[in-house]
Every structure is written in C-alpha cells, then in structure tokens.
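quick one, 189 residues, struct below
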Amino acid sequence: MLPTKCGKREHPKVDQIPINSFPTMLEFLIFDWGNTLMRDFTQYEGAMAFWPQIEVISGVTNTLRNLQKHYTLCVATNAGISDTALMRKALERGGIESYFSFYYSSKDLGYSKPDIHFFEEILKKSGFVSDKAVMIGNDYSKDIIGAKQVGLKTILFNELKTPGNYKYADIVISCFEETISAIDELNKK
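---
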C-alpha cells in the first residue's frame, strides 16, 4: 500500500502529464459512483438524477478527460435507488457521462459489492481480465475488498483521510487528481 498526500503542488496539473506516463499494462479502470465521482448528498431522497443539487468531486472531470485517452473507463455502483439508466442521467447532468464506455449498477447486474460476482460480471460483460483492471472507490469494504478477491488492482479514494488498516488497497489517495499517478505506480508493479 502506498499512501499519498494531497497538496497544492505535490502533483502536476492533469493536463500537463505527458502521454508517455501512461504505460499500457493496465487497460480497464472501474470507478465507483457515489462519493468517488459525484457527491452523495444524504439529505436528498430518490435518484441522484433528480436531486435539486449535484456535485462532481473536485478533480474528476480533468482526470477522466485524460484517462479516457489511454484507458477504457467504467462506472459501477451499488446505488439502491438508481438503475444504470438513472446513473447515466446523473453523470450526464454532471458533464462526465461521455468519458465512460461501460456503466453498471447492482440493480441491473443482480449482484452488489462486495460480492465477487459483481466484479466478475463487470469483467465478463466488458471483455477484460482482472490483471488488466483497477477498481477505484471510496468504500474500503465494498469497493476494495471484493475487487481484490477477484484479482483487480485497487485504489482507495480516502478523501476524508480516515485512518485505518487498508491492507487490500494497493494505493490510498486523498484527492482525485492523484488517480493518474496511482495508476502509473500500479503499472510499474
């Protein structure tokens, strides 16, 4: 596990990262949705697509814009109310839907994280293998443990810097912009 710190100048601007810093060992990046890509406001009920306010997590748009040039991006959620179509509407509202090639919800897959079948179905339906894939998510027990059991590399997005023993996370980041350097590090392993 490689912990990282988020600071104003600790990492280059996402738009300034050279293309050769994206090795091709990894191919498929799976992102959790709520509190990884978009803020999950607990005060609102119903599907995020219809909330009066939505918020894309800081750094997500520029990071996804750059990553999708070099990797196939997927978003996968356990969101209890939203199916895949409603998740896509929320992503579209946030201006980030177009960066993804695959979209999955537990409602449509028939399995929920951390069940290993959730991750296996995503890999099967998307046509990728586990050693070429990374799961990026904010919930250690749901996003990271199940993904690791299937053989995926894992990045824990610990925005609140909550202390803990995250032994199944290959890398822990606290700001989304660190995703690119984390993937570069995983490509070196």
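Confidence is low (pLDDT under 50) at residues 1-5, 8-14.
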